[in-house]
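WARN retry 2 of 3 for item q-0093 after timeout on previous attempt; input resubmitted unchanged.
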Amino acid sequence: MLDFLTELRSSGSRADQLPGNIYTEFFANVIEEPREHGCKSADQDFTQGFSMLRTFDTENSNQLEPPAATDADVWIFGYGSLVWKTDFPYIDRRRGFVWGFKRRFYQHSIDHRGIPERPGRVVTLLPGDPAQDRVYGVAYRIAASQKGAVLDHLDYREKNGYERCSLEFHEYPTDGAEPIQVIMYVATQANDSYAGDVWQVPCIARQIFSSAGPSGPNREYLFNLAAAMDQLFPGAVDEHLEELVACVKRYIVEDEPQLIRHALLHEISGILEEEQLAEQAHQLEKLLERCQKPGGREWLIYAALQAKNKS
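OK item q-0093 returned
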């Protein structure tokens, strides 16, 4: 980087051309490279390589030697990331749904798909019509000998505003089986991170589009949930989820390249205000490293959106 800056300075390039030259040489590929961590370019399949249906019915447990089922086991119902990201042991799993709820991206995420100063959006359930509204997801059977540790783990994982409740789960496809009593986690409207519907779908989608946290980009959460619903429950309709996916994809196609370029040029211009060439090179290398880390794209997008809102 330092050699490039030295050569650039000696070439006689105008000061206003330097940010663009540096951007083209080192940073343009941030936009052009395939977007990992749920951030692929719009002409790629967002769900490529992500297939649950292929193994769902043949791999009931994620343990090599699962404990035997007993009457003291519990079932956990997942309708968000638990559908496609199980980080706890289970001995059985079933596809199905619960009656009387609507799934909505009305909960802020400050510990998984966002950070406190840039919260993401994740799902919770709202009361709906008991005879019409259903939410699809996956129920996991937890062995009695493991349920204490699993529930402690889930209590921590869902600590940002989610509470346990119990209800009936119905298997899919409906085959006349008796309902299963399950535990699920719901973020109530009274919790501090409840965001609600104060913003309509385009605004929620823009928040998802520009957020990332310790668990990865917020868009990955959205796209993986949509992919899981498509694969596990073909034909099931979730208008809220489908509208958000379409809106975020549109932002990726229409807005993302320009926003990232704008943010990078702004960052590069600020670095070039440093007097020492060596310090400029050091800060540019740090900027490049940050851009290439998970969440780097979202950081740039958020910065560009904030600047746009202030102008």
